[in-house]
């Protein structure tokens, strides 16, 4: 092959972020000076852009923003720190360090994210370096956890097939590491390693000095579980098994959730299948796909810069041909697969290696000691005796994984002591819920999410209970703004923040994560949400077919149209 397809070049003046990257000397900028500057607890916008590549953002506590403004004080600046954790696996020792650091430097909590990693909030500038170094002491780093690079590669956290999961985890780690930025900046700035002066080629052979036009995300699913929301990824990989052995992957490209209110040229999109490759080729396939985005993504307007827009602008077939041309071979035909759900299966399960795994529901991923529910303490006690790992799921939950038979009782005792199984009594709706962080730390939040969804669910539960639907699995997702960090556009019920207490309300995604939802009502508050949902839920209870999911019912019953291509997400019916 070797044929080079020349796709139309992208036009427009490069955005300011491109300039920042170009002048940063491979992500160094003036971060050292900024972090040492004692005059402010913040850093400049310019350096904050670079901080992202180091897995951290400057934020301020929005709960006290106004009050501080009135007092003419600078905002209550603090940093968020996100760990790099391909496949979401931490040892018990690493858990204990996270627990300790949340107390010592953070806001006494940490958050399991929708991409299977951990975020700390509330770290003051003066503690940042110590925080990073202590993370490093347990072999954690935060490189590429944010920024215009490939992020944490997600993978299925299914404990039933532990052997297979292990292999998938190895692939996700290989892809992640292959696509890591190679600059030494992180080690110099945070870990005081010697400055290395390299040529451009040596520093970033895959990315070059401008990195990618925008963030880039990869996830691997093992059917029938779609717990990584494989179609929301820039590259979605679907494991193909023969005789229960992994042989290769179906490859889907161009998914993403973000959009901007009022700009219909932005939309959530599903990744689309382009073919199958054997497993030994997958790392190179991911690299070549990512380099097409590196070369053709929009570097002018950041809100149009994600790979999904590159794919839609150039055409799926053309992008596929370009990837094949870079690979030097063509994809095989997509192999059959079937997804059933996106959620986690809770409680104890025995893996095929005989070990036990306990999947624990963590409401919106927040690990802290709540009144009457000392969750963080309980998990610390478990970590103190646990010899296996903690595995984080894309649904913001945790699997206490690889518990040997003789250790199960001791862990069960702690689970009982702290009543961690109380969540078994939660409605299936709550157990299938996801909310992003939003207020008070997220600078982009327009409305609450994590702090509000639990109480909204309580009210929806009342309606479900009235209709005998307590145990009906329905996915519900809330994001505080249209960036969609909870993948709200993939919820059978979705909420996207519009303003304080107001949400756009979406219906009709599929339970298996194969279809987007669609707007049903715009800019509504709690009262209207509940009065709108009640009759739909009643209708569902009365007229659903056997095994019909809520997301499918609302389409059959004509509440919304099915959306299988994001370009129709905003179309009015
Ligand atoms: Fe996200 C930006 C939190 C998963 C789409 N996201 C942010 C920032 C960093 C806000 C900012 O830029 O100032 C949020 C930090 C809030 C805080 O206070 O901590 C933030 N995103 C999160 C997390 C923590 C949500 C959660 O509660 O779990 C998730 C961390 C994932 C991780 O570990 O890497 C998180 N973000 C997602 C996802 C879901 C996913 O990746 O599966 C999406 C949608 C998928 C996608 O990327 O298309 C997502 N986040 C965004 C976007 C919109 C990107 C776009 O295409 O337009 C932004 C804004 C941006 O990039 O400019 C954003
Ligand atoms: Fe913040 Fe919006 Fe992401 Fe929620 S969806 S964490 S509000 S950027």
Automatic annotation (TrEMBL):
Could you say which EC number(s) this protein's record lists? Answer: 1.8.1.2
| Cofactors, names only | [4Fe-4S] cluster; siroheme
Q: Name all Nitrite/Sulfite reductase ferredoxin-like domain ranges.
A: 72-137, 352-417
Q: How is the cofactor bound?
A: Binds 1 [4Fe-4S] cluster per subunit. Binds 1 siroheme per subunit.
Residues the record lists as binding [4Fe-4S] cluster = 436, 442, 481, 485
- Record-annotated residues binding siroheme? 485
Keywords, A to Z? 4Fe-4S, Amino-acid biosynthesis, Cysteine biosynthesis, Heme, Iron, Iron-sulfur, Metal-binding, NADP, Oxidoreductase
Q: Which residues form the Nitrite/sulphite reductase 4Fe-4S domain?
A: 171-328
Look at the named UniProt entry and state the broad enzyme category this protein falls under: oxidoreductase
Spell out the reaction equation it catalyses: hydrogen sulfide + 3 NADP(+) + 3 H2O = sulfite + 3 NADPH + 4 H(+)
Q: Which SUPFAM superfamilies match?
A: Nitrite and sulphite reductase 4Fe-4S domain-like (SSF56014), Nitrite/Sulfite reductase N-terminal domain-like (SSF55124)
Q: Which domain of life is it from?
A: Bacteria
Q: In which pathway does it act?
A: Sulfur metabolism; hydrogen sulfide biosynthesis; hydrogen sulfide from sulfite (NADPH route): step 1/1
| Secretion signal, residue range per the UniProt entry | none
One GO MF term, please?
sulfite reductase (NADPH) activity
NCBIfam families, per database record: CysI, PRK13504.1
How does it associate, per the subunit comment? Alpha(8)-beta(8). The alpha component is a flavoprotein, the beta component is a hemoprotein.
Family from the record? Belongs to the nitrite and sulfite reductase 4Fe-4S domain family.
Function according to Swiss-Prot or TrEMBL? Component of the sulfite reductase complex that catalyzes the 6-electron reduction of sulfite to sulfide. This is one of several activities required for the biosynthesis of L-cysteine from sulfate.
Q: What is this protein called?
A: Sulfite reductase [NADPH] hemoprotein beta-component
This protein's gene is called cysI
């Amino acid at each position: 092959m070797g044929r080079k397809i020349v796709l139309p070049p992208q036009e427009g003046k490069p955005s300011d972020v491109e300039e920042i990257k170009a002048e940063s000397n491979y992500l160094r900028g003036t971060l050292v000076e900024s972090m040492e500057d004692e005059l402010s607890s913040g850093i400049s916008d310019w350096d904050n852009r670079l901080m992202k590549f180091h897995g951290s953002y400057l934020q301020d506590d929005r709960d006290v923003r106004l009050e501080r403004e009135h007092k003419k004080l600078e905002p209550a600046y603090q940093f968020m720190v996100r760990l790099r954790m391909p496949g979401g696996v931490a040892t018990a020792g690493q858990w204990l360090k996270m627990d300790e650091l949340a107390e010592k430097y953070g806001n006494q909590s940490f958050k399991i994210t929708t991409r299977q990693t951990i975020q700390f909030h509330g770290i003051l500038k003066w503690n940042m370096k110590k925080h990073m170094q202590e993370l490093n002491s347990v072999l954690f780093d935060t490189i590429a956890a944010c920024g215009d690079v490939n992020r944490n590669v997600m993978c299925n956290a299914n404990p039933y097939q532990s052997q297979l999961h292990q292999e998938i985890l190895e692939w996700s780690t290989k892809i992640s590491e292959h696509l890591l930025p190679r600059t030494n900046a992180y080690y110099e700035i945070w870990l005081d390693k010697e400055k290395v002066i390299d040529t451009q080629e040596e520093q970033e052979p895959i990315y070059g000095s401008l990195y990618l036009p925008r963030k880039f995300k990869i996830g691997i699913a093992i059917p029938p579980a779609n717990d990584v929301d494989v179609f929301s990824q820039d590259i979605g990989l679907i494991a193909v098994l023969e005789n229960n052995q992994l042989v290769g992957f179906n490859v889907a490209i161009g998914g993403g959730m973000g959009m901007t209110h009022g700009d219909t040229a932005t939309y959530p999109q599903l990744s689309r299948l382009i073919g199958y490759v054997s497993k030994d080729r997958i790392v190179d396939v991911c690299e070549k796909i990512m380099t097409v985005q590196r070369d053709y993504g929009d570097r002018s307007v950041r809100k149009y810069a994600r790979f999904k827009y590159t794919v839609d602008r150039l055409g799926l077939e053309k992008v596929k041909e370009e990837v094949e041309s870079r690979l030097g071979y063509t994809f095989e035909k997509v192999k059959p697969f079937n997804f059933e759900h996106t959620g986690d299966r809770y409680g104890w399960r025995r893996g095929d290696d005989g070990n036990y795994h306990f999947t624990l529901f963590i409401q919106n991923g927040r690990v802290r000691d709540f009144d009457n529910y000392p969750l963080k303490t309980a998990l610390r006690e478990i970590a103190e005796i646990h010899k296996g790992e903690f595995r984080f799921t894309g649904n913001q939950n945790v699997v206490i994984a690889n518990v040997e038979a003789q250790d199960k009782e001791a862990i069960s005792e702690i689970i009982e002591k702290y009543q961690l199984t109380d969540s078994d009594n939660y409605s299936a709706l709550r157990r299938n819920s996801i909310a992003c962080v939003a207020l008070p730390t997220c600078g982009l939040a327009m409305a609450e999410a994590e702090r509000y969804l639990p109480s909204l669910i309580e009210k929806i539960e009342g309606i479900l209970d009235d209709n005998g639907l307590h145990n009906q699995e329905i996915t519900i997702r809330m994001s505080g703004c249209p960036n969609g960090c909870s993948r709200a556009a993939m919820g059978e019920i979705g909420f996207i923040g519009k303003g304080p207490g107001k949400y756009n309300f979406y219906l009709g995604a599929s339970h298996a994560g194969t279809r987007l939802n669609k707007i049903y009502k715009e800019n509504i508050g709690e009262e209207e949400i509940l009065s709108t949902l009640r009759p739909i839920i009643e209708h569902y209870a009365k007229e659903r077919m056997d095994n019909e999911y809520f997301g499918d019912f609302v389409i059959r019953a004509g509440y919304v149209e099915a959306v299988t291509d994001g370009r129709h997400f905003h179309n009015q019916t």
